[in-house]
Queue: 4 jobs
Job 1
Amino acid sequence: MAANGARLLLRNVSVRYGALTALDSVSLEVQAGEAIALVGPSGAGKTTLLKLFNGAVRPSTGEVSVDGRILAALSPAELQQVRADTGFIYQDLNLIPNLRVIQNIVTGRFGRRSLFGSAVDVLLPSRSTARAVYRVLEQVGIEEKLYLRTDMLSGGQQQRVAIARALYQQPRALLCDEPVASVDPLRARAVLALLKKLSEDNGLTLCVSLHHLELAKEFFPRLVAVRNGRILFDKKPDAITDQEYTEIYRLTHAAENNNGEPENTHQ
Amino acid sequence: MDTDNSVNLAIEQLHRQRPRSRFVRYSVCLMLLVIALSWLLGDFFTTDLFNGRRLQNLQRFLQELIPYPLQGRAFDWAIALDWLDKILADRGWQALGTTLAISVAAIVMAGCSSLVFTLLAARTLSTTEPFLPAPLGKHSRFKQSAWWLVVAITRLMLIFLRAIPEYVWAFLLLAVLGISAWPIVLALALHNIGILGKLSAEVVENLPTAALASLRGLGASRLQIAGAAIMPMALPRLLMFFFYRWETCVREATVLGMLGFVSLGFWIQDARARNVYDEMFLLIILGAALIMGGDLVSAIVRALIRNNR
């Protein structure tokens, strides 16, 4: 796997959807191989922030760069390279429901495969491709599902498939949008521990958005709090003051208080 | 009670303010008016559908539909089967086979080639940056216009292909290619490329885009997305259209035989010309049976695809 992670940088980035300002002049730097958690209530702008780094959202003003390359200045081919190096685990997973697990996972490497190679991967995967997919599935603990149709799996299993797809991609940065919003607390800890371990093992940069502050403090050495499209604070967990804590916690708590049902963060 | 009243008032007010479509109201009124007028002014009452002569005609016609050897005598299986066997051996099987072959050749040609046009005509895919925000590069305007042109030309061509009826295509092609199965096959294929291309493009445009965008987001190309995500997601519905159009092709291959090539339609017309109504009726039934068989095959294939786990 990639030996070192990608360096992610936002400089005075604003994102506006019509009259709505999703991000307001945000600057953020994530070092190569660093693991950060984005915390904040639903609708704070966390998803938008993550989507800037693979060009799925375009900044209205400001600059997004990955490893010092400004995304807006890249040619289509260069942008494709950046995307091939950037894994994204979506809150809605975004798998193709009627493909088999192995077929969904091989799509992860499409950014680096020729048309012919990817057709072979999907239709007649070689023994070595199947082995590589199996290894990735082993890492998330569902290797026995290799040839099942993806929509036959449970929600938690499908989420592991989405993680496996991103791992198979061998990205240099992994962006995860609310990976634990739809799983129970026990599973949430397992998923976060897994993401953390995988990023440490492979040296990749990890950005995870969470609206659960306690989990973020438990797993991440750096917390970036986002509220109303602005960065509220950017600190180590133990450096957060009581006041900051209550301020963000009051908001996140409100978002989570529907019997532990996380609020929908679709935009 | 007071609160009930105030709620009632509020509801009434909301009801008065509800958005109402003028179009629906006016068109309903217009429709009622047209129905009333056509009932009063039309000549429903001046022509009689069921006068005596027509009844006699109908009775004679129904008599003629009974197999000739059986007319005026008790039903006998041996005689009926003998009659059936003779017609089938003479021309029934051949005509049935030809009709089936024409329709299958036509729909396979149309189905395969329409896939290319489907992808070109789908506005979500035929754009500078499918499923994600377009880049702002200096050539992106130009590229966007080029893609727009691709979609417009493809769609215009599809409209042209389906605007000309199969019958007219066949007529034109018969003049060029002479009497053989090919003019009919090509006529059906051309018309159905227009229909399948348009319908499939709509299906592709209406697919949920999140999964497709996620592939684009990890660097997949258009064709990779088309092959690995769009096709599997759209396939059940595309097959439904495919089989429905096949059914129409069988019907049209029957009818187009009347232009002179030997399919079911040719023999139906032939029997009609010789006033052999029993044989004509049998051939019509054969055509219907072919379509029912096709429907069965289509239902089985689609169920298999749906439940393929």
Note: Residues 256-267 of chain A have pLDDT under 50 and may be disordered.
Job 2
Amino acid sequence: MKRSLFPFLTLCFCLLFFYLPLAVMMVGSFNNSRFGGPWRGVTLRYYTSLFRDREIWVCLENTLIIAVASTIVCMALGAAAAFALHYFRSKLQFIHQALVYAPLVIPEILMGMSLLLFFVALEADLGMWTIFAGHVTFSMSYVALTVLGRLQDFDFTLIDAARDLGAGTWTAVWKILIPLIAPGILAGGLLAFTLSLDDFVVTFFVSGTDSKTLPIYIYSSIKHGSPTKLNALSTILLIVTFLGAFISRLLAGRAGRTGRIVNKAG
Amino acid sequence: MSARPERAQGSARNERRRLNEIFLTLPSLVWLGVFFFVPTLIVFAIAFRPADPYGGIGDGWTLETIRRMVSPNYPAIIWRTFLLSVAATFICLTLAVPVGYCLARVGRRWRQWILLLVVIPFWTNFLVRVFAWKSLLATNGSFRLALVWLGVLGEDQPILFTPVAILLVLVYTYLPFAILPVYASAEKFDFSLLEAARDLGASSGKAFFRVFLPGISRGLATAAIMVLVPSLGSYVIPDLVGGASSEMLGNKIAQYVYTERNLPRASALSAILTVVVVALLILFLWWSLRRDRSGSGVKKGGLFT
């Protein structure tokens, strides 16, 4: 009996391990004590000072512009890549597949470093455009794999049925395939969006000095800023993430999917 | 219809198929070629270029940067990076196996919720998580105070800015990456095999090590790669919770880019890291191909010997 309880206790331990640090931080963001010491009552002043900080709003705007732009490009490129990988078996697809999988397994710092050298070699100005290019590069493969997962579950006899009933290839694709694959493309897009919002390492390498995103702001606040204000900002980000995760779970459907995507990425 | 127009039609169809393939493949292929493959080649090239005094890249070619890599400074950092990454991988796998087992055996409705709880940390902002730990580990942080209270840590013994802090945050960050593949394998595992092993006289420990673990070996290997590779390349974690004496490869690369402005040296270190990562991935692919060819995960006869 004792033995069978062990896995369950480990699970409880892991969940505590995951959430306790976040909970402590969220509680700390309301603590009316300047340096996060003992509890001194509830305050909202870190939140109000957060809303008055103009720099945060500029960073947020940059972050969202890049996230939206890179997500749209990633959805188009990633979905096309997934279709190509699924339908064709040629030497070209072998190379294509290697290129699509590689960014998933290469540590971020290597991607940041190589992109920086690439832009330096091109003598490009570092800024919003280079951040955008970096974000598309690291999230495209995630969209491709998510869509590929959907395509593998897709029942292709539906296409044959549509064509038997007189639909042309493109009609069948637009009316049958795309609508059924759309949740996959959306789920991939959501993943790309989150990755873009969160990315620090690649952005740090290719952002130059003028264009700051929210993670860059957070990083410099961790290094030099006030921890209490950062507690408040983190709490807001965490709550947004919890909501986003919940919505995406509704979109993605079955529970096993995440495990399968991760499995393929390896 | 005669044979001829049919063949012409067939070749026209092939032609169109070929065009479709190119139309669908080219955008992602070109993008990744330009922004991923070419930059990686540039890293290797610049490792052989001299640095100029203004933080740029000088003319000509040199082996000087590579030769300097044998100085005692670098092997120590590479060794530390390797040790911390392997330790993080080991701890993550040790925790992921019981959790994956539990998830595979629990009822469907519970499983969905627990899986969501495991995945959420992966969706939260990475810097926020590191920051949460930094506060917990600080001198007056709750976690450090708890450890002092438990007697694990001395009254004025620091934990922040030590290798232990790095290890802890590495495990915290990459544990979900280990749990998911292990769970995915455990879900497909046929648990009646464990009962069969017990019926045939194996102790539960023996059944676990000789039947369950080999049965989920694919998940274990994927989990190991998913933790080991990003740990080897980690930069933010050692930068924020590690100290000057616990630098890792990633820190050194960033340091050469930002403070010492020596791009060739940063490139040489990146090239070393790339070679190590690619070697690990090839090893993993070779192993999984060989495993797929030999059939099931449980070795024949392995059950009874």
Note: Chain A touches chain B through 93 residues (CB under 8 Å).
Job 3
Amino acid sequence: MSYKPVIGLEVHVELKTKSKMFCGCSTDYFGKKPNTHVCPTCFGLPGALPTPNKIAIEWCIKIGLSLNCDIPLFSKFDRKNYFYPDLPKGYQISQYDLPFAHNGFVKLKTDENKTIRIRRVHMEEDTGKLIHGIVNGKKASLIDFNRSGVPLVEIVTEPDFESAEQVNEYLQKLQQIIRYLEVSDADMEKGQMRLEPNISLKKSHPEQREEYRDSSSVIRRPQNDIPTYKVEVKNINSFRFVEKAIHYETERQRKILEGGKTPVQETRGWDEKRQITFSQRIKEQEMDYRYFPEADIPPFRWTKSQISRLRSQIPEMPDKKLKRFNDDYSMSGYYSEILTRERKMAEFFEETVKIGKKYNINAKKIANTIINKKIDANSILPAALVQSIIKQSKKTVVDEEELKNIALEVFRKNPKAVDDYKKGKNQVIGFIIGMMKREIKKPVENNQLKEVIENLLKIQ
Amino acid sequence: MNLNELTISQSLVGLKKKEFSSLELTKACLRQIKNQELKINAFVSITEEKAIEQAKKADLLISKGTNSPLIGVPVSIKDNFCTKNIRTTASSKVLDDFIPPFNATVVKLLEEAGIVMLGKTNLDAWAHGSSTETSDFGSTKNPWNTNFLPGGSSGGAAASVASNETVFAIGSETAGSIRQPASWCGVVGLKPTYGRVSRYGLIAMVSSLDCPGPIAKSVEDCALVLEVLAGKDSLDATTSDRAVPKYSKSLNNSLAGIRIGVSDEYFDGVDEEVNEKIQEAVKILEKLGAKIKKVKLFPPKYAIAVYTILQRSEVSSNLARYDGIRYGKDRSYFGEEAKRRIMLGTYTLSSGYYDQYYNKAQKVRTIIMNDFDKAFKKVDLIVGPTSPSTALPIGSSKNHPMFGEMSDALVEPSTIAGLAGINVPCGFSKQRLPIGLQIFGPQFSEERVLNAAHKYEQTTDWRKYKPSL
Amino acid sequence: MRIDISRISKLANLSLSDEEKGKFEKQLDETIEYIDKLKEIDTMTVDPTSQVTGLENITREDEVKPSLPQEKVLSNSKSTHNGLFKVAAILE
């Protein structure tokens, strides 16, 4: 019997708004003194109330639109009730049955036609941060509420992934989209992007390899194929680790299943040092979040024109841009891929192409220069890059063969100079270069001439 | 007449004419508090020092000709409003030593209007109840007869006004918590439309129902206070940005042609004595020119069930923040009533029961709102008894898990729909306990409600009777 | 008996004495009997109302406002350490 992984993914993205989700506290908390970015609202003082951040909601919807989601015209916030010391109100303001976006999809490249369905994209608030340590010889947990209330967007997929590699590709893509939108830096190390895969295994039936055709097609699986358990893995802070964790977890589960048992439904953590997942021994708590509508925040009703206005503000997404680069600039997929990896680079490239056009420099030449010379879009202006390419190209129009002939002609007319050089008077080379330049009548690099001269004289 | 017996409007006139200073007025109130508190127990905290300081400041401003709307007038504030640097307990041991670092918007607005804060008044712990008997700081007593309850949850507020310990009080109502104690204590209590006054800094009970409001010695005073409190607050997303009328200017409008509804459903199980006084009040309103019409309304007993479900559910969530980590004491300090309510609310929201209870209650709420919409096409206002009875004896609430809901039965339907309503005194029982008339109208009908209440009040003499303390 | 008191008290983060559990069980049962009155009302075609204001789309601009000073944030707590709130260790 062989098994096939069934993987779904929850990704949390911290938005880079100036202020928090429901209050005016600054979101610039990273590395700051603890409990200094806190007010009655995000600290859960009695009577304090939330007022939602307009930009955060717009960004959440833009993420949804970029992931091909539907945007329901009516939406609301709900309370998710649970107790944890880093959750100041004893509930998290989140969204339950009416998220800002749902029913989207992302197409993967490597596996042809593989589509990952996006179940929902919703808005919520971050919790405080727990730090575990020892105080006065005793184990203790310490809490900093600076992060409490920072806007978070949660992106949930259907369990459509069949391998760690697919997960990785999706994550790269998602991160790229988020960065293109400029709604978050999605820096894993700073916790701006957090991943929670849920993993289980199902029996694989090689004869019926089918499944997800597109986002709208109904998926039919034999009843006994659906796994009866789900293992969630937390505390993963890099894409590499998520692959490792999935590999480890599928192996672990496979062994259990092959032993005729069912893995326990639980939350596990990833231990990077030991390269294993481990059962998180959080005190057994029943999860019944008792969601109900958040009465402190009136609901949201969008008009179609509001949504299309947001849609119009979305920049061209990487996939589209890549295709357009291939077409417009007749470049190889490889070049386009590199140039569209980051929005800033793509824009820099196109700006340079626009300026280059005036000087008859083609896009390929520019792409070549950017990629081969590892140009940093942040440290040079497009116009400056164009200028440098012009200079470069002007100096290299003369080809090697032509140069050789010119040099030999100069040698013939100036035998004394050649003699002097051979006697060890190296400085005479400057004279020869000058003579050659007079003949070439175009700017050309001295070094190139020097090289040609030396090579010829060595042979002589 | 002692200064502390004055109404707001009388105080403002006297202060302006320099007949007395705010300090004298404040000291008169503080004296009364000292004399009465052992009997009444209306206050959890008395802020004498702050009061004296504010009074002196007010006097200085008055002497400079400053014309803030409530300048120099003493007020008591229910202890579920956060007051910056002043202990705020919600009458629960959990918050015994909690010092808020911020002011509720209502407190901020009052301070900007020039008030003098005398102290924080007692309530049922977390405002859970209609008796003040669930307070962790002892029950407040009814100034008309200290063997009786003042009602609640704003029992301390109503008693502080009735006993002339203050000129006026700020209370809060979720379902009856202003009007019912006002009724039992024989004072005026206004429950504004939900969203008319900011809840920011009011310790949350039922987020979709809570509403701050004044308790005072006259309808005019309530109008003056509402003018200060009403309006949009950027810190409370549920406040309305409708313009705030000058409520005090339309109080004397004629009631001629105003259609007033009376509903039989609101007299079910009402004490005979109460019934009689309400009928008399209706006749007076008719004499004032109002057209009295019978209206059929959705039976209040369903509103009680709706309220109970919404209240318990939201309480279980709103009290979740009290974990003793950041402030206050841990959850073992909750009193029995709070625990009972948290338990039921946790149950009604729990998986498998949400549709049966919370969602069902929200649906019946829609029915109740539609029912009122229909009724208010036929009438402009509805009147009836505020409470089915006069004040009940001390101890009555013990071991009645739904005591509050029952004594608030007649104000719950209008609460659930977020309507504006008022209690105005309309007589006394044989035991010399006050009886209250409630007048309520559609959302944002405060002008009309206050107008009718004022005309009725001015035609009768009930306001002139004072408890003998 | 309709309520599993132990389960609900765990969800509610309340530790109840046996006496309280017994008392609440009975009282909550009475209350549930009362609220079950709502079953008499047909709500098949009715939408729920969770807010009565009719307000929609209320937001604030993304502007930073001052936070509380750290000492004010910590001052009501009985258990702090180096500017942080301290609780008993959560993970083993």
Note: The radius of gyration of chain C is 23 Å.
Job 4
Amino acid sequence: MSYEAHFKVWRGDADGGSLVDYTVTVNEGEVVLDIIHRLQATEAADLAVRWNCKAGKCGSCSAEINGRPRLMCMTRMSLLDPDEPVVVTPMRAFPVVRDLVTDVSFNYAKAREVPSFVPPDGLGPGEYRMQQEDVERSQEFRKCIECFLCQNTCHVVRDHEENKPVFAGPRFLMRVAELDMHPLDGAAEAGLDRKRSAQEEHGLGYCNITKCCTEVCPEHIKITDNALIPLKERAVDRKYDPLVWLGSKIRRRV
Amino acid sequence: MATGTDPRSATSAGVPAQGGVHHPSRATIPARHLRADRWWLQPAATAAGLFAFVVYSTWRAFAGDDYYAAPYVSPFYSPCIAENCVPMKSGADWEVFGSWWSLSPALLILIFPLGFRLTCYYYRKAYYRGFWASPPACAVAEPHRTYTGETRFPLVLQNIHRYFFYFAVIVAGILTYDAALGFRNARGEWGHMGLGTLVLLANIALIWAYTLSCHSCRHIVGGRIRTFSKHPVRYRMWGWVSALNARHMQLAWASLVSVAVADFYVYLVASGVFDDPRLF
């Protein structure tokens, strides 16, 4: 069954813009991205939107629908009230480029700040052997499609632009956690303390675990419970727990 | 930069920029948020629930009376470590603090469960959202001009949560002992049970479930290990705690309610409102 929906889409660029009203046909089974494409095909041919797979796996079509950060391709129209306008805006934590397209280069800069996997000494390519239980935790984090909805919704940078230089954001703190939990990562042996650097260089202390990153994750990764809080506990081991510090000193001497 | 476009109005660390979603580089949308759902309901309900508990527990903690009705003791007053505690038959009343302590004995012990819950990862989320609006809800702009999170005093002290966890385990052990004493009658004879015994048992079961589902506990029992395959016992324990941990929020609320209910039950019996129905 089709109906006419009232859409309000943000149109503009870095110099300004506003919500523009459209009335557009919605067919059964469609998602918000389908409607945006219909708008492009009918009355707004110059509407800028980033998209790719239409299957929730490329992370391109991130936007805010009725104020909630979501993937447009994974938001079914049947979930929205047909009598209420559907408001679609670009992500509000990043600089806007045009219409629904934002400049997410902040995330790529943060990605480069996380030191990559350090190959273990004495093992060559093809010689890595890991037990499933040792990599299970990290595998959850590998589901990330880098849609940056978690980065967008995190109030640490969304509401405080000044924190962007010092805070990596949930996606990249999760990356630090993934590497710190990796059974073969040789960072510690190479003199890189990921636990300490999470707190001192990637701004883990700014996270106040209010779980918005987890709420918006389209891959349903438990970012807060399985990555950020365990990473906080690991940082506590390094920086705030005298008993753990003492234990590590004694073990080193024995 | 990967896209070749730097953010237009870069700011330096720690220098407040023009407010968050209204930063000049971002889409110009006058509204601080565009959520049309009832986003305020959850933080409001959380704040109301926590406020109600704070009011009730403050009243009971300062009352210093009606907390023991043999064989039951209120969880707010156990262990009772002041000389002014009422005598409890085989109970956890130790006169650590002498007669100079004239305030309610509950104040001496409640600091530990209070600290445990105050630094708990779930309650932090609850009160940061409910009371401090930081943020009030996801994608709803917070009202504060600056934000440093848990990087500075006093919030950096949230990092001592694991120490409160250790104390919470001790307190839970003592409350388990109290619940076991509930299988006596008022004269101290074993093999009896009343409605109060069930109340204390339900309470201690929820207290243990909440305590063991703690994120610090999850880290201590196994989370800190990098290679689970070398520690199969700890891996198994980590799996159990992780299963509980997934329900940490529900257990936090259930145990908060149960501890208040257990205290109120003892208060009603101790103040003579009704007699404890004996089952056998």
Note: Chain A touches chain B through 71 residues (CB under 8 Å).
